[in-house]
Design a protein that fits this description.
The protein is an alpha/beta fold and 317 residues long. 55% of the residues lie in helices and 11% in strands. It has a seven-stranded parallel β-sheet, sandwiched between helices. Bound molecules: 2-acetamido-2-deoxy-beta-D-glucopyranose. The site of 2-acetamido-2-deoxy-beta-D-glucopyranose has 4 residues, from loops.
Length: 317
């Protein structure tokens, strides 16, 4: 009996191992659009794909970042300026991409990588704009870019690859950011099922903590203090300065051992080059062993673990 079970398991793992390593090939004939190539994951991914021989169209928010990337890449790589919150920019980008693509050619992949960090503060301190600023880029940017370029992806029966986060599965602190990432997860799941028969694949990346500009300690401090200052006097008194300081320290401490950024680029590469890409890529040890554990166990346990050492407001001390 056990022999059968073990044989089946080994067979399953071997087949999985094998299928996961199959590649689509022909990279030199494939065009990939990546957003947010100014820095971080997007910048590295553009260079990685360029090195593999893809025709990379790297969208950057800033002109100088685009010029910098162009200098470091092959002649094939093209850049364009794109602020994903601007309808005009997205329209202009579509025209530019169409002019880059050879006749009757579409996009093999659209990588919705562009994102911003922020939204640090307690729910009572945050205002509506703190939410919309983040959602505009991290959620509505993804939706608008996907919608605009989907017909070009359909031409190649290609892929949409969306950057979410473990914050799209486990919501704790920086609420606006988590809401946007939960939104990206929901959008990607809906889209994948909606286009099930169109031959287009949708993958979601869920990285844990990695060293990019999203978790810059100075930015964390500035935003926490700014949102605290905008709360009314009663609220400020209830929470107290000490509470905010502890929140900042906790967040900086919890993001102080980031993973190797190449793990994220490897996951992106797999989603774009594998014959059978995964639906979800949970990237990093923290994501796989801590966050995944916490979003799987019952809430009484995850809440206890997450809140046991959490700062207490001055009003309940
Ligand atoms: C991006 O576009 C939005 C909307 O058009 C604008 O409000 C914002 O300032 C732009 N951001 C940058 C960094 O240019």
């Amino acid at each position: 009996m056990w022999l059968y079970v073990i044989t089946i398991l080994i067979g399953y793992w071997t087949l999985k191992w094998f299928l996961e390593r199959l590649k689509v090939g022909n990279y030199g004939e494939k065009y990939v659009l990546v957003t947010g190539c100014d820095s971080g994951f997007g910048h590295l991914l553009a260079k990685r794909l360029d090195g593999l021989g893809f025709h990379v169209i790297a969208a950057c928010l800033k002109q100088d970042a685009a010029a910098e990337l162009k200098k470091k890449s092959s002649e094939r790589l093209q850049t364009l300026q794109l602020n994903v919150t601007s309808e005009d920019d997205i329209k202009t980008a579509l025209t530019k991409v169409k002019s880059i693509l050879p006749p009757n050619k579409g996009l093999w992949a659209v990588v919705n990588n562009a994102g911003v960090g922020g939204g640090f503060g307690t729910v009572e301190c945050l205002n509506r704009k703190d939410y919309t600023d983040i959602m505009d880029v991290n959620l509505f940017g993804v939706i608008d870019v996907t919608k605009t370029f989907l017909p070009l992806v359909r031409k190649e029966r290609g892929r949409i690859v969306n950057m979410a986060s473990v914050s799209g599965r486990l919501s704790v602190t920086f609420t606006p950011y988590c809401i946007a990432k939960y939104g990206v997860e929901a959008f990607s799941d809906s889209l994948r099922r909606e286009i099930y028969h169109q031959g287009i694949k949708v993958s979601i990346l869920e990285p844990g903590c990695f060293k990019t500009n999203i978790l810059n300690p100075t930015m964390i401090k500035d935003i926490y203090h700014r949102t605290f200052q905008q709360a009314d006097a009663d609220c400020q008194q209830y929470y107290g300065e000490e509470f905010i300081k502890e929140c900042i320290n906790n967040l900086i401490r919890s993001s102080s051992s980031p993973g190797d950024i190449n793990m994220v680029i490897d996951a992106y590469e797999h989603a774009i080059t594998a014959r059978y890409p995964k639906y979800r890529y949970i990237v990093g040890n923290d994501a796989n062993y801590i966050h995944r554990f916490l979003w799987t166990v019952p809430e009484w346990l995850s809440d206890f673990i997450l809140c046991y050492n959490a700062p207490r407001p001055a009003g309940i001390k």
